[in-house]
Amino acid sequence: MMPVTATLAPPSPLADRLLRMTEPATIAMAKKARELAAQGVDVINLSFGEPDFQTPQYIKDAAKKALDDGFTFYTPVAGIVELRQAICDKFRRENQLDFQPNQIVVSTGAKQALANAVLSLVNPGDEVIVFSPYWVSYSEMVKLAGGTTVELLGTLENDYKVTAAQLEAAITERTKLIMYSSPCNPTGAVLAAKS
Ligand SMILES: Cc1ncc(COP(=O)(O)O)c(C=O)c1O
């Protein structure tokens, strides 16, 4: 009798979690806009929320000076303390919000900070409530973490805002996180304590 040998499929070069992801709509739109522009089409690109002005000169100058001054080494992981203090000062001065530097983490953009938070909090099978319409990356981050997105749709009648009653009805014992932005991208709706 021939010996039976199990044949295992070779491992996929990419992790399975990557295969769950789809290309974000904003990236696909930006690519399309670039392609059309390259063909000479007059495109108004509404994909990324990128400013249509240059970085102010004083910021460019400060970045150049920092390089010339040798400010090119690792910083503390949460950000340099002077910057975290300046962020607290800005929050107090302009937003009436009271934070201490040890409550601030500087990241390379909101996307990274949100992805870190979602990956730190969400286990496979956890539910994440997302107010819809929403910035496209929210559900991709939840997918990456193995969670399930529970979309709550804000209605036109309520200025695209999700109501407290909708939220209350959606919360289960598996709810781990609620994600929304205010002002909302894309609707611009601003939530108040009683929305
Ligand atoms: C609601 C929302 N959160 C996060 C981001 C990502 O921000 P960043 O470009 O700082 O990573 C965007 C970008 O459009 C956004 O609209």
Task: Outline the structure in words.
This protein has 195 residues and is mainly alpha-helical. It has a domain at 108-195: Type I PLP-dependent aspartate aminotransferase-like (Major domain) (Aspartate Aminotransferase, domain 2, 3-Layer(aba) Sandwich), CATH 3.40.640. It has helices at residues 16-19, 25-38, 57-68, 81-95, 110-121, 137-145, 164-170; strands at 127-132, 148-153, 175-179. Helix 6 (137-145) links the parallel strand 1 (127-132) and strand 2 (148-153). The chain is extended, with a radius of gyration of 22 Å. The mean pLDDT is 92. The structure holds pyridoxal-5'-phosphate. Residues 49, 109-111, 135, 181, 185 line the site of pyridoxal-5'-phosphate.
List keywords for this structure.
mainly alpha, Aspartate Aminotransferase, domain 2, 3-stranded parallel sheet, 7 helices, binds pyridoxal-5'-phosphate
Summarize the structure.
The chain is mainly alpha-helical and 195 residues long. It has helices at 16-19, 25-38, 57-68, 81-95, 110-121, 137-145, 164-170; strands spanning 127-132, 148-153, 175-179. The chain is extended, with a radius of gyration of 22 Å.
Topology:
Blueprint: H1 16-19, H2 25-38, H3 57-68, H4 81-95, H5 110-121, E1 127-132, H6 137-145, E2 148-153, H7 164-170, E3 175-179
The chain binds pyridoxal-5'-phosphate.
Mean pLDDT: 92
> Largest sheet, if any?
3 strands, parallel
The CATH topology of the domain at 108-195 is what? Answer: Aspartate Aminotransferase, domain 2
- SS-based structural class? mainly alpha
List segments where confidence is low: pLDDT < 50 over at least 5 consecutive residues: none
How many extended strands? 3
List the total number of helices.
Answer: 7
CATH superfamily of the domain at 108-195: Type I PLP-dependent aspartate aminotransferase-like (Major domain)
> Over the alpha carbons, how many angstroms does the gyration radius reach?
22 Å
Q: Roughly what percent helix?
A: 25-40%
CATH architecture of the domain at 108-195: 3-Layer(aba) Sandwich
